[in-house]
Specification:
The protein is an alpha/beta fold. Helices cover 40% and strands 19% of the residues. It has two domains: 2-173, HUPs (Rossmann fold); 186-272, 2-Layer Sandwich (Pantoate--beta-alanine Ligase, Chain: A,domain 2), CATH 3.30.1300.
């Protein structure tokens, strides 16, 4: 596996693959990889002859009070995992490569960026849109693979790609979960043993909400019950449990089209998010 950190070396590798007629897939990550990330690499290998993984903890999507400085990192471990998974190239740039001196572009997001994560982390989706646009431009990938755990993020990236006519297809992979249902996430490393046990209540609450919605409950009823279940399980704050259209990400009062039930809540100082298709 090649490891490159600058745009010129990346461009040279991609150009050689292009000259050989190879299709290129990219898996954007912030590192500290787990089985969920490796499932994305596996799907990328099905879609293209060459696979690039990126590791970049993107400062533009973090607010000043968030965990940019302490976000978990383990590049050596990530390299070993990616090599085993059959990744062809790791692009792990420093900040000055992704955002060179004089970089002045910003992206203002509406549409699927509004509400839910957009309300509770208002800086995030502008940063996601910006860094993904940079990654797509630098890698010239034919396809990019994302996990469905961050469903609102997937919707935002799809909107950006369509609006800016970026020639990359967006593919998704279902959320990879632990045995108790907890969605795998790099930030799960923050959970102490007691919180880790409680964390499984997120999946249980969303599963119950999905069943209630399929049985005819309104979103207010099903989501309100899920919020209460999370509080009873020990979550100190529930940011939201909500039903959104899987196509347009619009709010839904009932389950009358393909949808996602999404939740975000805090266990101590750790914020968990998850969603399920309904």
């Amino acid at each position: 596996m090649l490891i490159v950190r600058d745009a010129a070396a990346l461009a040279a590798a991609v150009s050689a693959w292009r000259d050989a007629g190879d299709r290129v897939a990219v898996v954007p990550t912030m590192g500290y990889l787990h089985e969920g990330h490796l499932a994305l690499v596996a799907r990328a290998r099905e879609l293209a002859q060459r696979v690039i993984a990126t590791i970049f903890v993107n400062p533009t999507q973090f607010a000043p009070h968030e965990d940019l400085g302490r976000y978990p990192r383990d590049e050596a471990g990530d390299v070993a995992k990616l090599e085993t998974a059959g990744c062809d190239l790791l692009f792990a740039p420093p900040v000055e490569v992704m955002y060179p001196p004089g970089f002045a572009t910003r992206i203002a997001m509406g549409g699927p960026a509004e509400g839910l994560e957009g309300t509770h982390r208002p800086q995030m989706f502008a940063g996601v849109a910006l860094v993904c646009s940079r990654i797509f431009g630098l890698t010239r990938a034919d396809v990019a693979v994302f996990g469905e755990k961050d469903w609102q993020q997937v919707m935002v990236v799809r909107r950006v790609v369509e609006d800016l006519a970026i020639p990359v297809a967006i593919e998704t992979v279902p959320t990879v979960r632990a045995v108790d249902g907890l969605a795998l996430s790099s930030r799960n490393a923050y959970l102490d043993p007691e919180a880790r046990v409680k964390a499984a209540a997120m999946y249980a609450a969303l599963t119950q909400a999905a069943e209630r919605l399929k049985a005819g409950a309104t979103s207010a009823e099903a989501c309100g019950e899920a919020e209460e279940r999370l509080r009873e399980a020990g979550f100190r704050q529930v940011d939201y449990v909500a039903l959104r259209s899987a196509r347009e990400f619009s709010e839904l009062g009932r389950l009358d089209e393909p949808a996602r039930v999404l939740g975000a809540a805090w266990l101590g100082q750790v914020r968990l998010i998850d969603n399920l298709p309904v």
